[in-house]
Amino acid sequence: MKPKAILFDMINCGGCSRCVKACMELHGFKGDPEQVKDLSATAYTCLVPEKEDYTVRNLCRHCVSPACASVCPVGALVKTEEGPVVWDGDRCLGCRYCMVACPFSIPRYEWDSTVPCVRKCDMCIDRIREGKKPACAEACPHDATVFGDRDEILAEARRRIRKSPKEYYDHIYGETEIGGTSVMFLAPFPVESLGFKKILGTDPLPALTANVLKKIPTVLVCGGAALLAIWWITKRRDEVALAESNPRWKGMNR
Amino acid sequence: MSAERTNHRLGFWKGMFYLLVAIGLVLTVVRYTKGLGAVTNLSDRYPWGLWKAFNVLVGVGLGGAGFTLMGLSYIFNARRFRPIVRPAVVMAFLAYTSAAVALMIDIGRSWAIWHPIVMWNPHSVLFEVAWCLMLYTGVLALEGSGMLFERLGWHRAAHIQHTATVPIVIAGVLLSTLHQSSLGSLFLIAPGKLHPIWYTSMLPLLFFISAICVGLAMLIIMSRLSAHAFGRQFDVPLLGDLSRILVAMLGVYGLARIWDLTLRGQLGTAFGWGYESAMFQLEFGLGVVVPFAVLVWPKLRANWHLLYGGAMFAVFGFVMNRMNVAITGFEGAQGGRYVPSWEEVFMTLMVVALVFGGFGLAVKHLPVFPDVGVGKAPAVARAQVGSHRFSAPELN
Asked: Which residue of B34, B115, B327, B341 is the best one to mutate when testing the A interface, meaning the one whose CB has the most A CBs within 10 A?
């Protein structure tokens, strides 16, 4: 299966909250979808007000090279070939490094549970595997949340910008940022919210730690050799000093 | 010091120990029956708090005293340090086990703590740290096993342990180099979140150097405390050596920090106004500049109180640094403030109390300080110390 992606088009979104409602119903979460202000362990997506009465969705970006998956010590978070980044409760030990690492601060924790889970959007991976759309994309009445293969989604985004260049700000958020994401955004103006700041750059975040981890074998080999050498030299120096202090040796030296 | 006063003091600390452990245990029960949210101020914005920053980052750093001293006395063959090798190993072992205990309480699924042994993710810095910590705690146990063998009278085992000392020490120094620096690498993944005063690609190197600094400072403090507790005299030449190396390392560390801030153009921010800047200045000023400025003068560091005070400031700076990297540095990006709950503070104190209790037990039952050791009355030891100052028989 080709990797999938979601496109969120701010211009088409009227803020009806049907995506939030569909998500909550699918997962059996209770509450009023219109009252959801932030992501939580019982809200995998929410609508965030932007300037000029626009609304933007917040949800897991399903990064192409996810920081959360790279930092997880036990590989409980995995980037699937279908595109979603999913969490495996049988592996997770609850260190919450994924929450520290996520550049968008997406993962939520069940703080009041004795068997806590990391909670976040999984792009409805079970539905995708059945050939269906994620619940939010299916519920959207205005083509604001669209789902498809990532390359087709990108083409669709470009098509929309080309068609109405005056309405759209010419940038697809998530196309290249930190190596690309599988949830992308179109906006009428540069968006500062959502964590797509310039500071993130286009290099995948896992490279930052991979570069350090790569040095470990060198440190071990060179460090080990250096320590052995120092040990041998200092030991030898002591032996020489000891020998030279021996009166018999002194005599021989003369 | 009269015996009565000593007993009073001991009684007070014993009382404190039981009180802290009792409160801590009650809170531990609450934590495991109601979840982390019931006892901590951790949140989705601040998933890492006091336990990760203090018990793990600081705890493991203070345990750096172990590898610093083992390296000095066995690799650099500085025999003068041998008398404090054993207390340092015991302290490091306790620091690492206490970090493991705290980590176990901190993680959401404590029963899964062993997962990194079989479930591998070599791309994860934390995976590497977990392995290094496990292996190094094993190495520390090996380094300390000589004491146990001696106590049990297993001379053959003690002899084998003694023969294997150098390879064990080399393994320990390498593992420590890796995980002390990797604790800094943990934060490399969060360039958008950690404040630029602390976020730098040099984090691993800075964490490593500062672990050596704090290791040396802890050795100075430990020498004083053990001298105090066991009626020993201070071994002045030994402390002179320690303080000289500490000054040099503090100098290297201070210069590296300034150089790094300058290269990244953050010097102005670091020494400017604002919350983060103030926290940095507190960390750097009190924790690096002050101890360096005092201890760099041979006359001043020859003064006991100043040397001890300088070492305390260096430890304070280290604690501040780890707290700033793990907590303060995230507050700008995450919004709001994280302040630990009283429950978090008390559970931290419980773990600290257990470390002190463990050290007391080890000193009582193992030949940690050989001439005070098992079966000898302290008075005899004091007399011995008086006659040939701190002349513990060649250890290991």
From this structure: B115
